[in-house]
TrEMBL record:
Membrane topology label: Multi-pass membrane protein
Domain Ammonium transporter AmtB-like: 21-419
Pfam families per the UniProt record, alphabetical: Ammonium_transp (PF00909)
Keyword Transport annotated: yes
Name of the protein this chain belongs to: Ammonium transporter
SUPFAM superfamilies for this protein: Ammonium transporter (SSF111352)
GO cellular component: plasma membrane
Keywords associated with the record: Ammonia transport, Cell membrane, Membrane, Transmembrane, Transmembrane helix, Transport
Entry's family note: Belongs to the ammonia transporter channel (TC 1.A.11.2) family.
NCBIfam families: amt
Residue ranges crossing the lipid bilayer per the database entry: 20-40, 52-76, 107-127, 139-160, 180-199, 211-228, 240-262, 269-286, 292-315, 327-347, 367-392
Length: 446
């Protein structure tokens, strides 16, 4: 009898469809950073608007260069001791072929590297919302470079890199509940504990100056998040990406409604800021869990996260930490909620056969794994971020002076203002004769 012939599995081939899909998703994730800038920019006072925008935009420059030089290698290179990666061919992208495929997938390495770069950009930008009004731009830029190097790149390897300890343990994080949101939220808490409160915290009104800008930013974030989440499956040949796409919409809607309901019961009104914040809370919570839960599970995840985050944003007044734009309350709490709820609502019918307490054999196994990933990332990011902020503060100084903070950080750090009010009386030019209109305009400009 002739021996059986075993055919080798056919190697993956370049898929034009998946490649095009992932390039679109990469662009969608990139638009989230300007969206975040608008979201945060509208939430601060007029005198801090430009600084808030710039704190997001500078991340697009700094992290891109670091990613090419060594960040991609640290995050996704060959595993070194389950803690970090390194592949010399990834350094400077010198050894990557233009049609070389990412192992096990049908997209080029360049496309995978580009997609992951967009995650690396937005994660430190998320931290900036907690530090509004009071941080030197130079100090912030240095913090972004150091934090990306010693916190984000290693944590990304733990969670998503082959051989990373959380990856091997079986921690589920579809698109960044631990690596992005818990990481950024814990970092924000660590930094604000070091640099202290804004001048006038809990005394002066610090209301958002432009809620339309906040809603525009929220809309861009919601739109870009479909690429952030659905793209993280690196293709949609088996439908998991489609499940993540619809769950993203479902959880976000549920969280927004839950936040508004809580707000109405607690404070008596449905606010625009509450709608935007609730939507972001849902987006955060479904990011780690959307590939593991059913659509009904996504409703539960979103609703629970919406209420928990709405409750959490007030803790800063109770405990006295100045989280300017509620990064801790939304991203840290939402990321923890979404990651841990996998341990309850994982259905076994999505990205893996892992099930939560409410499904399968009702095992707590996945919940313990989620706890390990959540609290390890939280502790590491909190401690290291606080150390970085302390070192920067003791060397070049982290904060602007009190006078500069009161006068406005936009003028102090950027020599610009977001809005030109010099033409506020320009209506005269539309009704006065030309010579008189010119005189009136000159007086207003003066």
């Amino acid at each position: 009898m002739a021996p059986a012939i075993t055919l080798a599995a056919e190697a993956p081939k370049l898929s034009a469809a998946n490649t095009g899909f992932m390039l679109i998703c990469s662009a969608l994730v990139l638009i989230m950073t300007p969206g975040l800038a608008f979201f945060y920019g509208g939430m601060v006072r007029v005198k801090s608007t430009l600084n808030m925008l710039m704190m997001s935009f500078i991340s697009m420059g700094i992290v891109t260069i670091l990613w090419v030089l060594y960040g991609f290698s640290l995050a996704f290179g060959t595993d070194k001791g389950s803690l970090i990666g390194w592949t010399s061919d990834f350094v400077g992208f010198t050894g990557i072929g233009k049609v070389e495929l990412w192992p096990g997938y049908t997209i080029p390495v360049y496309v995978f590297a580009t997609f992951q770069l967009m995650f690396a950009i937005i994660t430190p930008a998320l931290i900036s919302g907690a530090l509004a009004d009071r941080v030197k731009f130079t100090a912030w830029s240095l913090f972004v470079a150091l934090w990306a190097t010693v916190v984000y790149f290693p944590v990304a390897h733990w969670v998503w890199g082959t051989g990373g300890w959380a990856f091997d343990l079986g921690v589920i994080d579809f698109a960044g509940g631990t690596a992005v949101h818990i990481n950024a939220g814990a970092a924000a808490l660590g930094v604000i504990l070091v640099i202290g409160k804004r001048v006038g915290f809990k005394k002066d009104p610090m209301r958002p100056h432009s809620l339309p800008l906040v809603m525009l930013g929220c809309g861009l974030l919601w739109f870009g998040w479909f690429g952030f989440n659905a793209g993280s499956w690196l293709g949609n040949d088996d439908g998991v990406g489609a499940l993540m796409f619809i769950n993203t919409q479902i959880a976000t809607a549920a969280a927004m409604l839950a936040w508004l309901a809580y707000e109405k019961i607690r404070h008596g009104a449905f606010t625009t800021l509450g709608a935007a914040s609730g939507a972001v809370a849902g987006l955060v919570a479904i990011t780690p869990s959307g590939g593991a839960v059913s659509p009904l599970g996504a409703i539960a995840v979103g609703a629970i996260a919406g209420v928990l985050c709405a409750m959490a944003v007030g803790l800063k007044y109770k405990f006295g930490y100045d989280d300017s734009l509620d990064v801790v309350g939304v991203h840290l709490v939402g990321g923890v909620a979404g990651s841990l709820l996998i341990g309850f609502f994982a259905s076994g019918g999505g990205q893996s056969d892992a099930t939560g307490v409410f499904y399968g054999d009702h095992s707590f196994d996945q919940l313990w794994k989620q706890c390990a990933g959540v609290f390890a990332v939280l502790a590491y990011s909190l401690v290291v971020s606080a150390i970085l902020a302390f070192l920067i503060d003791k060397t070049i100084g982290m904060r602007v002076s009190e006078d500069e903070e009161i006068a406005g950080i936009d003028q102090a750090e950027h020599a610009e203002t977001a809005y030109d009010f010099s033409g506020a009386g320009g209506g005269a030019a539309r009704i006065l004769p030309a010579p008189l209109a010119d005189t009136a305009t000159k007086k207003v400009d003066a």
